[in-house]
Design a protein that fits this description.
MetI-like fold; disordered C terminus; disordered N terminus; mainly alpha; two-stranded antiparallel sheet
Length: about 300
Amino acid sequence: MTVATDRAGPGGFLGFRGKGVRGKPPVDKFWEEPDIPPVFKIGGWLALAILLLPVVIVVLAGLNAGDFLTFPPDGLSLRWVNEFLTNEQFLGAYLFSLQLALTTTVISTVIGTMAAVFLARTDFPGLGVLRAYFLSPLILPGIVLGLALYVFYVATFEPLTGIRLQRTVAGLTIGHVLATMPYVIGAVTAALFNFDRTLEEAARSLGAGPFKAFMKVTLPIIAPGVMAGAIFAFIVSFGQFEVSLFLSAANLEPLPIAMYISLRYEFAPIAAAAGIFAIALVVVSMVITSRLISLKRFSGIKFN
């Protein structure tokens, strides 16, 4: 049994349009994505509901009209949202977390991209160990990383250099960079996996130097991976708690630390109201980034 084709018909693969086989769909259907079994659709929606449930609880708790953080809320009100916007401690912590996350994202993206290029394009004995070393902050619990950095700052770095990093913005930034850089390395390495090196070699053959060839050819192609890594770094830094717990100072409290202190001593809904603004920031950053660079090329996810 053969399949008849029409070379002049538009819309076919490489100019061919399938006429189909008796009782079979046209050849074009072969190139369409297969139908997803209903059980997988149900599982996907169930997983989405489970992931969104904490977000819904935080939003409703932040809109609580009562005096204490309870769920279900005692009515809905913008009382604690207005309290957050006028509270110097929480608003200052929110702005400080935003500034810290932006700084961390820039540093992690630059260093992580360079490290990913090095790991993807070199081959030598011990490369696997070096790759595991770069990605080790993903394996270590955050509380171990924060404690290790604090002990290193106090017991080793300050006695040797005379520079105090514990409880400073610089020391906190270094901790956030260490915690977020592996996400950038992983995302950029994935983008470099299928990169065609001949494109960069062609630019080099036309007179471009290594740096110019990378900036003009390689970087635009792997930009979705770089941007995805930057998004991960921003989100992880903004919500980083364990490292901040050991390295933040009393006057340099990121938002997670301010929420923790509030829940520990007051248990007021203002902490949940702060969570609403944190969730909104993450959503806005994802939407803006998806408009600037198509994440679908990198992850297969479409943002409408």
